[in-house]
Amino acid sequence: MTWDQRAALLEVKDLKVHFPVRTSLMTQMVQGNRGQRWVKAVDGVSFSVARGRTLGLAGESGCGKTTTAKTLVRLYRPTTGQVVFEGTDIANLGGRELTSFRHRAQMVFQDPYESLNPRFNVQAVLEEPLVIHGMKSAKERLARVMETLEIVGLTPPSVYLSRFPHQMSGGQRQRVAIARALVLRPSFVVADEPVSMLDVSIRAGILNLMKQLIRNMNMAGMYISHDLSLIRYMCDRTGIMYLGRIVEIGETDDVVRKPMHPYAQALLSAVPVPEVTHEEIKVPLEGEPPNPVDLPPGCRFGPRCGRRMDICTRVEPRPMAVGNGRWVECHLYRQTPDQADQEMVGNE
Ligand SMILES: Nc1ncnc2c1ncn2[C@@H]1O[C@H](COP(=O)(O)OP(=O)(O)O)[C@@H](O)[C@H]1O
Ligand SMILES: [Mg+2]
Hints:
Blueprint: E1 8-20, H1 25-31, E2 38-50, E3 54-58, H2 65-72, E4 80-85, E5 88-89, H3 95-104, E6 105-108, H4 122-132, H5 138-151, H6 157-160, H7 170-182, E7 188-192, H8 200-216, E8 220-224, H9 228-234, E9 237-242, E10 245-251, H10 252-257, H11 262-270, E11 320-323, E12 326-328, H12 337-346
Parallel strand pairs: 3-8, 3-9, 6-7, 7-8
Antiparallel strand pairs: 1-2, 1-4, 4-5, 9-10, 10-12, 11-12
Helix pairs in contact: 5-7, 7-8
The structure holds adenosine-5'-diphosphate (ADP) and magnesium ion.
Residues 19, 39, 41, 59, 61-67, 292 line the site of adenosine-5'-diphosphate.
């Protein structure tokens, strides 16, 4: 199974998120719904995250990382598959149940302005979710806001309360965005490239902060980046995404030190991770990924893969267990009948 060994807070099972390709009115009139094509942004991913643990997702731009993240916090609805959060499938939550879920699962965006209203000062930004989620006492809200500013290192908090987003530095703004995600004390936080817009000099502070928070507050965390050296620093487990699939997932050290999927190998040889030598890996990554509308038959990485075999052009590879909670979707690691049996048992 692709599950973390510990009891999961979040379990994602064969999640697909497809978007309709917009076509011109003329095409629609001629073809009707028959011609509808789909962007397969997320095309069957499974993973789990336990409390106190962080899962990383890495992969080139356009592979479906942000769509996965947004679906986990129900900004998008799954097309098919399940997102089970604390035992409940969130796909069809509505009303009070959805509000309660939003209380517990939060997202930190690449651009802090996505979660900060520029016309609100810091106090208003942080109080808003508390008001929405029913904290009635103004005194209690202010205390929570001050405490949260302290947690994200904006001290003394009283200095920041009346500031507006544009009056702060990029790093301070991202700290406020993190504070906004934490102010309700969620049990799950997914951060989508949270430092990619920041100066290198202030990235480490934000990364350390997030790493500590996930441990100290016993949350389940997800960290998304195209940069594997950041993922390695942040995450216990790591999944490598390619065109809507997780092609390899396992303990971060295993995946980063000895990637098995040719795409993971290519990604790591293109952007080496400091302190890890990849002598045996020299895999060029050629061309661009095809678009997720017209996927090639067989393995979707096939057309760019240096180790392509005949079967790869015909048969889509399935996830295979290769030990230590690691899974790889590649025909190079074909399953023995014994392993196939184990998988059947493991998935029950
Ligand atoms: N709202 C949307 N409508 C249509 N297509 C989308 C939408 N969001 C993302 N996509 C497409 O889905 C694919 C995955 O995008 P995304 O999840 O943003 O990837 P990543 O975050 O890994 O760069 C891309 O081809 C992108 O163009
Ligand atoms: Mg993205």
